[in-house]
Structure formats: C-alpha cells, structure tokens
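Supplementary Methods, section 5.1.

A reviewer requested that the exact input to the structure prediction be made available. We therefore reproduce it here, unchanged from the version used in the analyses.
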Amino acid sequence: MKKVFLFPGQGSQFVGMAKDLFDEFQFAKDRFQQAENILGYNLAEIAFEGPDDILKQTQFTQPSIFVHSIIINDFLSSKGIFPSAVAGHSLGEFSALVSAQALSFDDALSIVKVRANEMAKAGNLHPGSMAAILGADENQLETICNQSGIVVPANLNAPGQVVISGEIDAVTNAISTAKEIGIRRALPLNVSGAFHSPLMTSARVPLLEALDSVNFNDAKIPVYQNVNAEPVTKADELKSNILKQLESPVRWSEIISNMSRDGFTSFLEVGPGKVLQGLNKRILAEHESSSIGTKDQLEFYV
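The structure derived from this sequence is encoded token-by-token as follows.
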C-alpha cells in the first residue's frame, strides 16, 4: 500500500507540544538544540511552557509545528517507514520538503524563521483577519467574497469548508453576507494576519531572499504543492511554488483528491494534532486516515 505523509500547518499547536518526545528521545533533544542555534532563542521552552498567547504568535507557532513534525518524521524514518508521496498544509509544506529530501532541516527552518517573522510583520503593517465559512458552494463563496476591499479564499480545506482572508472590514462584511444568504456557519478566526492573501505581499521579497540563500534539491518522492495541488519533484518548481504559496490559496481538498486519483489510499498525518485527519474524512471518507504526533502514538504505530 502506497502511504502518504501529511504535515499540519498553523492552528495545530498546543502548549506542551513535543515535550513527551523531548523527554524520551535524544534525537528530539538534538532537533530542538539545532532549532535554538538557528532561531536564536529557546524554542523548547516556548513549545513546552507557552503561555498560549506567546505560542500562538506566528513567529513562534510556525517553528514549533515544523520541529515537532520533523521529529515524528525522523522517528518513522529510523524504523524504515517512508512515504511514497507527501503534502503539507501551508507551513506544513516545509516539513513535506524535508521529508522528501528537497531541503535539509537546517535550511528549511532558516526559511521558516524568515517566513514566520515576515508574515507577522505583514500582519502588523496591513492588519487583516480570516474567517471560516462552512456549507457554502462555489457560487455562494463568490458572493461572500464580493466586497469592497480585499477578501479572498485562503484555505480550500474540504467540500463546504473554506477559510477566507483579507482586510478586517471586508472579512466582517463577508461574514454578514454569508449569514444573509443562509450559510450554515461563518465565524471569525483568532489569527494575527490575513494569510494567503494579497496582504502578505510585503513578505515576498524577504522570503525570496531566504529561498535563494539555500540549496533546493529535486525531491525523492512527489510533493503535492499547495498552489497547484499537483505532484512536483523538480527543485526549481518546488522553490517557485513555495514563494507563490505566500499569497495564494491552499488547495487542500484538491491535493487529497488528486492523491487518490494517483492511487494513494493510505494517509498519515505527521505532527501535532488531528486537523488534517479530520479534513480527510470529509474529502475521502472511504480511505484510511490516521495521525501520529505523540510518544504513545509512535510506540503504538511501530
């Protein structure tokens, strides 16, 4: 059976994440030490102790999730468990690139550091918000996003489950429009910026400089990327799509459907939480989906 590894993005963090792995495994300690050397601060302390209002800040959330995910990937690799393809949701795409050996851990985290910091800055420079829209079809989504001001689909997560992103007033008006046309649920998200929207444009140049500073390799296995939902292995294309991802929607539902189209039927979420496992059940309920992010889950899995 061809197995896919899926790597979570922002929103899967929690205070105490990866502490059980750190306490049990030397390689987990080593990864956190590498991270501290690259980031210039003690990531373990923030991941393990929080508080939540610090951990959920973009510049800390993204490295924490990335390191947690790679520790799980490391363990599985050490047991001879490898994916046949990978994908990652937004930030998770960097974990996927490491798993596919297109980027080293150090290089990927150095990019994540810049990406997270610049996205946080963009959120301060151009304040924005995001909202979850549940139960809308494509025509209704177009109506919802037809506002004065910037508001766009940001995460196409599953049938009937979309996140929109944009200027604060435009998103607020979009929520009102959604309720007026009878959408089941439309609720604002507690985020620090309008991710995957034009409001992230100011982060583009610093991110490009970070991408240009490291070595991309051709991926050993297909990486289904966020911007086109298709399998990619060539280094130049992987790099180009990572940059485009900053301001483009995450086409997650398409990614999972295309993986099924290409013969993948077993999906494993690698990292904190079960967000992607939950989405998979909405997209392809007939396929096997599970998650692995704790010491106990690792021991049970192997």
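The first helix runs from residue 19 to 24. These observations are discussed further in the main text.
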